[in-house]
Amino acid sequence: MATLSDEVIINGMRLRNRIALPPLTTNYGTPEGVVTDEIIQFYKERSEDVGLVIVEASAVRADGRILPGSLGLWEDEQLAGMAHLADTIKNHGAAAVLQINHAGARGFPSGGEMQGASPSGFVFRPDVVPIALNQVQIEKIVTDFATAAGRAAEAGFDGVEIHGAHFYLISQFLSPLTNQRDDRYGGNAGARATFALEIVRATRERLGKNYPILFRLNAVENVDGGQIRKDAVAVSCLLSDAGVDAIDVS
Questions:
Q1: Rounded distance, CA 29 to CA 46, Å?
Q2: Over residues 113-118, mean pLDDT
Q3: Count of CB atoms situated within 10 Å of the CB of 248
Q4: CA-based nearest residue to 59, from 211, 175, 194, 163
Q5: How does strand 159-164 pair with strand 95-101?
Q6: Whose CA, among 52, 57, 150, 194, lies 20 to 30 Å from 144?
Q7: CA proximity to 151, closest of 214, 92, 81, 200
Q8: Do 71 and 92 form a contact (C-beta atoms < 8 A)?
Q9: How far apart are CA 249 and CA 2, in angstroms?
Q10: How far apart are the C-alpha atoms of 104 and 42, rounded to whole Å?
Q11: Other Cβ atoms within 10 Å of 172 Cβ, number
């Protein structure tokens, strides 16, 4: 019987034990989404005993940050700091995975073409006007996720985690509460997963078959009209078929 101290392998990524540090938004980054000394120290202290460190949500676009100090990988200028962060974690014995995200209509108001991005215009905060994404915008964000994932691999991270939980943009597409679309991106759980699956497939194509991809997913949303467990199970199977190696259930 496996124990917490046993190692585990996820698509070639070795974890020395089965304890993981989940992604925790610190707001310690610069306004440009760059790693700071505070970020390095935060993860250095937490990498010494766990098997896996999942670095906090890092934006795939400047207009998709959760907070003003969220990290990002939307441009090459952010690579050096991320490489330093990945090295710091791995030098202390933990595997390093970077979570990539677009906050959508839950993001802070920073401006930009995709500020307020959403499937159906659901309002999350009074200072951000949501926009229902069209096909061209959806395709652009899919590419942004795959490009950011490529940068994460270039920076030396052992894997990436696509953030599909907590009512950020991908989660908004997955939830029946916030996705009221009548095109192929809306409908039952499988149809609502179309956006997520396109991101996974584009990311897998970018990274190749031997690079670990994780996906963070809500289980039960505990709000009226939200996702239920049956939906989460169905979506998990689709994600696995599309190339996800592990589901991080929230």
A1: 17
A2: 96
A3: 21
A4: 163
A5: parallel
A6: 52
A7: 81
A8: no
A9: 20
A10: 26
A11: 28
Spatial distance between the Cα atoms of 11 and 197, rounded to a whole number of angstroms: 19
> 166 vs 84, 226, 239, CA distance in Å?
28, 12, 17
CA–CA separation, 224 and 31 (whole Å) = 36
How far apart are the C-alpha atoms of 88 and 75, rounded to whole Å?
A: 21
Distances (CA, A) of 77 to 62, 74, 80, 81, 149: 13, 9, 7, 9, 15
Which tokens is 142 given? 């899919």
**Regarding beta strands 13-15 and 8-10, do their DSSP bridges make them parallel or antiparallel, or are they unpaired?**
antiparallel
47, 88 Cβ separation under 8 angstroms: yes
What confidence tens digit (pLDDT) does each residue in 45-91 have? 999 999 999 999 999 999 999 999 999 999 999 999 999 999 999 99
Tell me the residue type at 31: P
Handedness of CA 43, 218, 176, 163 (dihedral sign): positive
Instruction: Compute φ and ψ for 219, nearest 5 degrees.
Output: -90, -80
pLDDT of residue 1: 86
Query: Would you tell me how many other CB atoms lie within 10 Å of the CB of residue 245?
Result: 17
